[in-house]
Amino acid sequence: MDFESIKLEESKKRANYIKELFAQNKFKLNESSHLGKLLKTVENSELGKVKSLELFDILDINRVYEALVVFETIGIEKTILSRIRKGKLDFNDSSDDDGKNILFELEIAASFLKKGILVKFEEPDLIVELLGKKIGIACKKINSIKRIQQALSKGAKQNKEQNVDYAIVALNIDNYHPIGHLLEKKTRNEALDFIHERNKNLYFEQKKEFDKYLNNGRLQSVFIDSRIKTDILNEVPRFNNLTMTTGIQTEENRLINEKIKEILGN
Asked: Tell me, what's the pLDDT at 2?
């Protein structure tokens, strides 16, 4: 593998950015924590000497950085950094982890912030104002069929309690259908098409469950989200984290549907 393709020096700068962000907010990172070990791996990596397993750590650090850096101009709440620091943040472990939960919330929030839309970290998980409407987004990571039903039920309930105008549940399925290795495709579009089909397949597998919440108006949108490490053979850099978020929406609220899909959908 050509490890130059992961832009190692850029990854080292990103690792340093993460360390400095926590230090500026008076948080000391435990070097024995998983995040601490990821940072150490990147710092100690040398071009031409990177081991295959270290590649995964480097991509994980890039993912954390990309979620955090979007908040650079507006600041990030200390409680969010605290949750990341206390979590395991091991993307190869499918067990529940609040560190990965809050990172997913940051990733969804970042999609709105990139469009200049203010995001509040409030119940259900995120609140945004869009076209004069209060939009609630419950962000859930799932690792089993049972968790799909639980996530939809809880997300719908949380949105109802907040009296939102438009209710969304965003489901991250990285641990439900884990790849377990680099997804290898010739082009970025081939990889994105593969991930999109995987997302759609989950919907069709559980269509009855999804439609139960969408058809009765408890939810207006469900977004199925995958974030996968990829090896794109014909592109530079070859190694990336690719994201595909596939939306299922009701027929009502078409203007909001289109805007939300533009922000979250790929």
From this structure: 46
